[in-house]
Amino acid sequence: MRNLSGRLATGLMLAGALILAGCGQEEGGQQQSEATPPTPEVTVVTLTPQPVEITTTLPGRASPYQIAEVRPQVNGILQERLFREGADVVKGEALYQIDPAVYRAAYETSKAELAQAEAALVSARNRERRNEELVRTNAVSRAAYDDAVSAMGEASAAVEARKAALASAKINLDYTTVTAPIAGRIGRSAFTAGALVTANQAETLTTIHQLDPIYVDVTQSSAELLKLRRALADGRYERVDPDRAEVELTLEDGTTYGHPGALEFADVTVSESTGAVTLRALFPNPEGILLPGMFVRAEIKAGVDPEGILVPQRAVSRDPKGRATALVVAAEDKVEQRILVTDRTVGDQWLVSEGVKAGERVIVEGLQKVRPGAVVKVIEAETKSVADASAASAPVRR
Fold first, then answer.
1. Predicted TM-score of the model (pTM)
2. What are the φ/ψ torsions at residue 349 (nearest 5 degrees)?
3. Among 65, 132, 235, 334, which lies 20 to 30 A Cα-Cα from 327?
4. Is residue 282 within 8 Å of 63, Cβ to Cβ?
5. Structural domains in the chain?
6. pLDDT tens track for 144-158
C-alpha cells in the first residue's frame, strides 16, 4: 500500500510539472508572436551622373592596305627569280628577270633607225636652206623649193617616229625586269626559272601585300547604327571629334593590340543578306602582328553620354515579361520597383536611359529579403566609376 501511494504521488507531481511547462511555452509563444519583426537591412548605391564613353565592340577581319598582283608585261622565258618568298620588298625592287635578248636587239635596231632618220633630216634641212636662197634669185623654181621644204618636213616626222619606236623598245626592254609596284610583303612565286610567261596573262607571278598600315573591316547591324545616329541627333550623346576617335583591337588570344587605330569610313550600302554595314578602320602595324584575314574584335568610340547613369548589373533582374527591373529605396525608406530601359553594358554596370534618375538609391544587396512597399534599413555602398567598371573587364594589353 505504501509503495502504491508513493507511486501515485510521484505521477501527480510529474503531471503537474508537465502542465506548468506547457502553459509556460504557450505564454512564451504568444509573447513572441506579438513581437515586431526586425527591419531588413539592404545595401544601396546612390546614382550619380558621370560622362560615359559610348563604345561598340564589333567583330571584324584584317585586310591589306594595298594589294598588287604581279604579272609580266612582255612575253619571254623566265631566267631568274630575284626575291625570297615571304620577305619584305620595296617599291621598284627587281623580282624576276625575263630573257631580254630579243628586246635588246629590237632596242638597238630602233636606235640605229633613229640615227639614220636624223642623218636624213640634216640633209633635207640643208637642201631646204640652199633652195631658199636660190629661189630669191630665181636660180631654182618655186616648185623645187616647195619640194625641198616638204622633204625636210617628212624627214623631221620620220625622226619623231623613230624616237617613239626607240622609246617603245626601251620600255619593252625594261619590262624584262619585273619590279615590285608597291612596298610590302611578297608571297610565294607561282613560276620558276625556265617557265614561259606572256604579257598580261591571267595567272599572277606573285602577290604583294602592304601590311603597314593595315585595314580592319568590321560589320555593324544597320539597326544599331540607326539607334546610335538617332541618339547623336537628339543630343543625348555628344559626338566624338573625328580627329580623336580611336578604335582598339582585341586579338584572337584575348590580348589587346598595342596600337590604337582610327575609323576611316562607313560603307554606303547595307548587305541584303546580313543587314549589316561595313566599317573600315586603319591601324599601324610596324611589328607585322596583324595579318590579312585575321579575326579581331574592334572597340569603336562612337560618342559620349555627358550625364550617364550607371546601375550595377547585380542590382538588375528580369520580370516575367523579360523587362529589366530594379528595386529603389524611395521616400521614408520604402522599396519601389522600377522598370528600366538599358542601353548597353559598361564593364559590370548597365547604362540606363529610363527608369531611374540621379540621386536615387538602388538596392544592390539584400534583394531576396525585401518586396516592393517594404520599409528597410539602408546601408550605403561604395559607388563605382566608369574607369573602375571598365577595368574589371579590360583585357591584357600586348
1. 0.63
2. -130, 160
3. 235
4. no
5. 46-63+210-393 (2.40.30.170), 100-175 (1.10.287.470)
6. 878 888 888 998 999
